[in-house]
Design a protein that fits this description.
Pfam families: IspD (PF01128)
Organism: Dichanthelium oligosanthes
Radius of gyration: 18 Å
Keywords: Nucleotidyltransferase, Transferase
GO biological process, one term: isoprenoid biosynthetic process
Structural class: alpha/beta
CATH topology: Spore Coat Polysaccharide Biosynthesis Protein SpsA, Chain A
Number of strands: 10
Protein name: 2-C-methyl-D-erythritol 4-phosphate cytidylyltransferase, chloroplastic
């Protein structure tokens, strides 16, 4: 779970934000180690989409929930001019039919060793004139089009924006021996989600710094943070969950049923 510190008081809305430019989207179908309880870690391949693995290895039990993976791609595609999906080539067919009716380019990039490597590979495939890049984990199949629009608009105004929600639970810092060090003030803590949207040049400059200093990051705005560039948090929805475990899949299916 990624956390950011920011007071929960909402900023005054910008006066009529400019219309968002046509951004490009980079969709990451899976992390390097899926935690679905399906098969051993050694059997997992980089870029295996959750939709294929969960549907195939659980006898299709969670097929309805994870089929929203391509629906997520479709939702993002409605707001951008092109989509780059980072996945193993064997799984391209999962996505090829998802945006065929939207008449925008669908490109592919190979996954890297770590998340930041996959994002970097996807970034190389976007058009050079793209004004924004929208990075999204398709393991968050319940993101709403309204939240996508909001974070895109905020990125236009601020240069970088990320969906997030205020932390509900009490968060404690612990030492290496699992003893509590202190209790953090949850009024200043946010749980990060995706999409995360930023100007491509910021992300590229951040990658240069990360590579130079040998840094490892777990989300995309962290790369921009290393440049000391402000990142705006767009308040999202608690239903935009990340599906990484069987319990997550069951919850996602229930939420989808409630929407339908």
């Amino acid at each position: 779970m990624e956390l950011r510190v920011r007071l929960h008081a909402r900023l005054a809305p910008a006066a009529t934000p400019p219309p968002p430019p046509f951004p490009a989207a980079v969709v990451l179908p899976a992390s390097r180690r899926l935690r679905t309880g399906c098969g051993s870690e050694g059997e997992e391949r980089l870029g295996d989409p959750l939709v294929r693995r969960a549907g195939k290895e659980n006898g299709g039990k969670y097929a309805k929930a994870v089929s929203a993976t391509t629906g997520t791609t479709n939702c993002i595609a409605q707001e951008v001019k092109e989509v780059v999906v980072v996945c193993d080539p064997d799984y391209r067919d999962v996505f090829e039919g998802s945006i065929e009716n939207l008449q925008i380019p669908l490109k592919f990039a190979r996954p890297g060793k770590e998340r930041q490597d996959s994002v970097f590979n996807g970034l190389q495939e976007i058009d050079g004139d793209s004004e924004l890049v929208c990075v999204h984990d398709s393991a968050r199949p319940l993101v709403s089009s309204e939240d996508v629009k909001k974070v895109l608009e905020d990125a236009v105004v601020h240069g970088a924006a990320v969906l997030g929600v205020p932390v509900k639970a009490t968060i404690k810092e612990a030492n290496n021996d699992s003893f509590v060090v202190k209790t953090l003030d949850r009024k200043t803590l946010w749980e990060m989600q995706t999409p995360q949207v930023m100007k491509p040049n910021l992300l590229k400059d951040g990658f240069e710094l990360v590579k130079r200093d040998g840094l490892e990051v777990t989300d995309d705005v962290s790369i921009v943070e290393y440049l000391k560039h402000p990142v705006y948090i767009t308040e999202g929805s608690y239903t935009n969950i990340k599906v990484t475990t069987p319990d997550d899949l069951l919850l996602a299916e229930r939420l989808m049923n409630e929407k339908s």
